[in-house]
Predict the 3D structure of the following.
Amino acid sequence: MKTVLISAAATALLAATQASAQEQDNELAEIREQLQSLLQRVDKLESENDALKDENENLKAQDDYLKAETRGLRKESAVHAAEVSKVKGSDWAGRVALKGDLRYRHEQISDDTLNSSGDLATADRYRDRIRARINAEVKATDSIDLGIGFATSDGGDPRGSNATLDGVFSRKDIYLDTAYFDWQFASWGNLIGGKMKQPFFKPGQSLFWDSDVNPEGLAVGFGSGIYFGTAYNYWLDEVSGPESAVTSDAMMYGLQVGAKLPVGESSLTLAAHYYDLSAAQGRAPFYNNSANGNTTINIPSGTSTVAVLANDYQVINVGAEFNTMLSALPFQIWADVAQNQDADELDTAWSAGVLVGKASNYRTWELGAAYQVLEKDALFAQLIDSDFGGGDSDADGFVFRAAYAPVRNWVLNATYFMTERNADVANSVGQVGVDYDRFQVDFNVKF
């Protein structure tokens, strides 16, 4: 029995031992599987890490490349911007043109007008004057040009840009000389607005309009082939006042049409011009309170009287200019005739002249002569030449010119006005046909 028990116990112990060994083997197998799984994961992580390293290297290389490209693009962009700036600068410079001139003038004036005592009212006069002008012409758009100019002037005289050398070296006045737009609205026409150069044709050296007068308002120019023309509406005086007063503004309306006709290798230009002053009769649309020879009447003004225009000015003007060559010399002959339809008498003006040569290029010259008759009420005297007859109507006489250009843009001029004032109507002391001579020598340089 004892032996049986011992055998049974031994058998149980052996079974237990075998079961424990089996269990340990199972645990070891499981541990080995886990270790194998961990090793596989480590291998995978190392593989992924190597891939990430490669990807990171690629990204870094791409980043370095992009940085280099960016630096190149920035440099290229800076160069491009500089080039664009240069182009814009050159474009601006190409759209703006500066022009100007400087004239130094010596002038001698002899006037035989007497005073109430029978003596000369003024002694012979000698003076030197300068004229400086500068103009900017801007191509604002493909169809609009702008012009702005400044000039010297004694007191803003509309008929002169001269500044007299006087006043113990005083500063000289500068005024706005031009300020306008010029819109080319069609191939055949343009609109000008502002203070402008005279937009119409004047034959030869006609003195019906002073060349320094720059009218103000609107003008329309048109041209096609040999034909041309201008219509304008200019302001003389802007008037305001109480409702009981007449407040119409003094205006000037005009129209010119013409044609430039070929005559062989020469040309003949013909033009007809009409202008009308509106709301000017009975008014005083004068600069510096002077009628410049036009007939005036006195009307009450408060406790005194004021001189106003006795006539309106509805002026018909026709002109002609013929240009040809005499051998190698330019030759010009011209004529200008005008009549005021509103005046009853002394209503006609005419002038004619000739010019040989043209002082412009190196060592070129010109000679000219003209004769003019300007009756008292033929033209609105605020516009006529300020040198002929002292700038007044009711004058006639000769004008002789000579000019020489030593080099281009430099011209020496000499002009002699041999005229009579009060040609038809006596002055305040009863003089008729008063001698008035004026001699000018000019040094002109322009750019």
Remarks:
- The domain at 89-446 is CATH 2.40.160.10 (Porin).
- The chain has a mean pLDDT of 89.
- The chain has one domain: 89-446.
